[in-house]
Structure formats: structure tokens, C-alpha cells
Specification:
10 helices; 8 strands; globular; 3-stranded antiparallel beta sheet; alpha+beta; 3-stranded mixed beta sheet
């Protein structure tokens, strides 16, 4: 994506100030793995819909603002891994083949999709957070398919994947905190979004030791350190960027 072009569109629409654009371009220069649009959103200079509309204006594609209902035929054709790696979502449509993307950096991805199918494909531009959330929901649905009703989807052997899904969802929804709190019967998981702590999920209490080990392993904290450590950190790869995760306990 042409950063100057994206910035120019946002400036022309009066959505950002020149100083804000210069600041984010400077940050990007020293931290090149982050996109300009991500930085502008991170510093609350503009929202994700404005970024999506600016990207769409560059390529002449429509903006998607609807519900993410997957086209299961396309999911089977390309596979969940491809969709996650390239951040594209196949939309269910009665008469067309439709995909939603959040950026146009990877032109090869749209070319691969079109060439693989051999017919016209309609591409929309969606908000990055909403698209990532839809992909994570799709992944969870496919992983949980076939589980007996009433049985927990999170099994102990897949707890590491569940934790990564939890992180992905929290980051995609701009959560500032994840609270993991054991009670007498369950592990209660909450996320703070826009300053409000919301319930996310409850896990069987028996998973607590394994979950603690997973988190400590990522933060490089040993069990012998548990009694006296207060804060630790680890870098978490999230799609095309890295997120600094802080771990603390009470």
C-alpha cells in the first residue's frame, strides 16, 4: 500500500492532521513492521472504518460493513490456514464469489484467489479488527465441529491453542487487559474493552495448572519464580505485527 497515498486521502477528507501523519510515518520508519493505518488507529487519530474507506478509495473496491457469514465452499477450497495467514474472508453470496480483505499490501494473495478459481471474484475492503475477529470465530467453529453438545470445546490438549485464540480475540477487539481468575468451581476469564471489564468465558478449574504453565512458559517464568515475581513480558506474533504482552499476578 502506498503510505503517502493513504495519508493524502485521509488528509484530503479532513480526518487527520498533517502533524499526526508525520508522527505516524516517523514511528513507522523506526518500526517498519506496522502499517500506517494500524498506527493511526493505535494513537486514536482515526478509526478503522476511515482506514478501510481510504484503502477502498485507492483500489476502487467497495467497503464491507455487513455480517461476516462464511462461504463454506471457499473455506474448504482454500483452507483455514491460508485465510488466516493472508487475512482474507470468503463471504456467503447467492450469485457471486466474494472475499473481504483489510489491506492491499499483498497483491499476490488476490491474484492467487482469482487464478485458483478461474472466474471473476468480487473483493471488498473491511475493517481490520472486525475481519480478524471473524476469522478467529471461523477457526474456532471449525475446531469445535463435532464436539458433543454440552461438552466443553476447550480440551486440555488444545489449551495452548485456546490461549492463543483468547489473545487474538482480545487484541482484535482492542482489549487492554485479560483477567484470568480461579473461583471455587471454574476459571473465569474477563477482558477489559473501552474501560469496561466484560465476562468472556469460563473454563473447568482442573485446567488452571496447565494454563498457568502455558502463560509462564511464554513469559519465561519458572515455577520457582512464582512466589516472588510481579511482572513479566513476552512478544506475541499477531498476524503481520508483534504485540508486547505484560503478565502480572496478584
Amino acid at each position: 500500500m502506498n503510505n503517502q497515498r493513504l495519508g493524502h486521502i485521509l488528509l484530503k477528507e479532513g480526518l487527520i492532521e498533517p502533524q499526526q501523519l508525520d508522527f505516524c510515518l516517523s514511528v513507522q520508519k523506526n518500526n517498519g513492521h506496522q502499517k500506517l493505518g494500524q498506527l493511526l488507529c493505535h494513537y486514536n487519530f482515526v478509526n478503522e472504518m476511515a482506514i478501510a474507506k481510504a484503502i477502498a478509495a485507492q483500489v476502487g473496491w467497495p467497503v464491507f460493513e455487513g455480517e461476516y457469514t462464511p462461504d463454506e465452499t471457499m473455506v474448504d477450497t482454500f483452507g483455514i490456514t491460508f485465510l488466516l495467514e493472508h487475512n482474507v474472508f470468503p463471504l456467503q453470496s447467492a450469485s457471486e464469489t466474494v472475499f473481504v480483505v483489510s489491506c492491499i499490501d499483498d497483491v499476490a494473495t488476490t491474484d492467487v484467489i482469482s487464478q485458483r478459481l478461474g472466474h471473476q471474484v468480487i473483493f471488498y475492503v473491511g475493517m481490520e479488527g472486525a475481519l480478524r475477529g471473524a476469522l478467529e470465530d471461523l477457526l474456532r467453529q471449525h475446531r469445535s465441529a463435532g464436539q458433543p453438545k454440552g461438552e466443553p470445546v476447550v480440551m486440555v490438549e488444545h489449551l495452548s491453542e485456546w490461549f492463543e485464540h483468547c489473545l487474538n480475540q482480545a487484541i482484535g477487539q482492542s482489549a487492554s487487559d485479560i483477567h484470568i481468575e480461579p473461583s471455587q468451581k471454574v476459571i473465569e476469564v474477563r477482558r477489559r474493552i473501552d474501560g469496561i471489564l466484560n465476562f468472556y468465558q469460563a473454563l473447568p478449574l482442573k485446567y488452571l495448572p496447565r494454563l498457568v504453565n502455558i502463560i509462564f512458559h511464554k513469559a519465561e517464568v519458572t515455577i520457582s519464580d512464582f512466589g516472588h515475581f510481579h511482572d513479566a513480558r513476552f512478544l506475541y506474533p499477531y498476524f503481520n505485527r508483534t504485540v508486547d504482552i505484560r503478565v502480572s499476578h496478584i
